[in-house]
Amino acid sequence: MKEKRIYEEKKKNFFTACSLEEPEWVPVGLDAITWPIAYAGKKTYDLLGKPKELTEAVMKIYLELDLDFCTDIHRNLMPLKTIEALGGKGYVMSSDGITIQHTMQVEIMRADEYPEFIEDSINFKLNVLPRRKFSKTNGTREEFKQACLDAFEQMKLQNETSMLLQNAAEEAGIIIAWDPMKMPGHPLDTLFDFYRGFKGLLIDLRRQPEKVEEAMSQMLEEILPMNLKIAEEIRNSDETYIIPIPGGGFHAVPYLNRKQFDRFWWPIFKQLILPIIEAGTKTFMKSEGKAGYCLDAFKELPKGSIIMQLEEDDPYENYKHFEGHMTLAGGISTSKLKLASIEDCKDEVKKAIDTFAPGGGYIFMADRALLGATDANPETLKATYAFAKEYGKY
Amino acid sequence: MENFKLTDVLEELEKDPSWEEDDNLRIALVNGLKAILMLF
Hints:
The structure holds two protein chains of two kinds. Chain A is an alpha/beta fold. Chain A contains 17 helices and ten strands. Chain A has helices at residues 2-18, 35-39, 44-47, 51-64, 80-85, 114-119, 121-128, 130-133, 141-171, 187-195, 197-207, 209-236, 258-278, 315-318, 334-339, 342-356, 378-391, and strands spanning 29-30, 69-70, 91-93, 100-102, 175-176, 242-244, 282-287, 306-310, 327-332, 362-366. Chain A is globular and about 60 Å long. Chain B is mostly helical. In chain B, 68% of the residues lie in helices and 0% in strands. The mean pLDDT of chain B is 94.
């Protein structure tokens, strides 16, 4: 079982780094969603619902790189076909046939509907809002039932793909940040992403903040018991998990000011995440957009519990919030992997490892997920990653 | 549009083994579908 031994060695090394101790080498991670499919010369839509073919395509780049860690291998499984079976348009294929786009930055819920949401949130979310999003909820009862049965078939294929990807990655010795228990998202991000949209929610925070808080309290009441149950399952499991932040990253946070962050986001986040951290996980977070203004808040969480990937914030400027407290994931921008020379990328790797690796608490990876075919030059990426693995030996 | 509650259909599917005999899988699929209906 050479593969199993390699996997266990990498896992031990990874957890050492994330526990803010010096590992044997700097763990190297890949954050990619649909780019690997393009790299394999395939189109995403052609592979959805085909577990073996999709797994084979996705794994091509993962097998060619000497990786320790990956983030979004499961997100190739965006439930596009399930949504289509229900007549939904929340996610659509882009014209390149590779990337999948979220189209729900609109106000599915109206600004005056908070009272209805607060009074019976489950009924509102399951009997009212879906009728505005899924065409097959608006026909006969039998038509909806058939749409559900069609959706279940797609979900089974998605689950099968998920398991194949999970197994293939582990066989390749790659640790995955994933959430097998499906931890619910932060209520503010859920309102932002799925109900009120970008513009609607930001206006609500100014015009009716108490209503937003009431809605979030209602949602928290529903999800907190689920989180506590997940924490219990993790505590009783032999497995050590690296769990991605629910929803994948900061969504509303980059658009808030510090006062709003302190009032609407941080207290609820702490309630949700602390039981999960205390159960013994490491949580991987993507700071999508600019979120440097709030990073000092994370010092309230236990040391070594968070792995943070910075997207638009300069890691060198923000390292003061990390050092001795949480793990920084980053070191190269995707724009460099796309446009710069291999030598320039290697210089960037040296600078990052020299700065961030001493003492542990550092994972080398790009600043954001690779999506479309041109998001990175494959030869540059392969050479840069190989160099990071070699240069990152302690 | 026929007047019915989506949750009634979902509840019926959750209890109906004719489309999926495995109770745990059936419940998990219905819960997964609820999440998709609520969010996506």
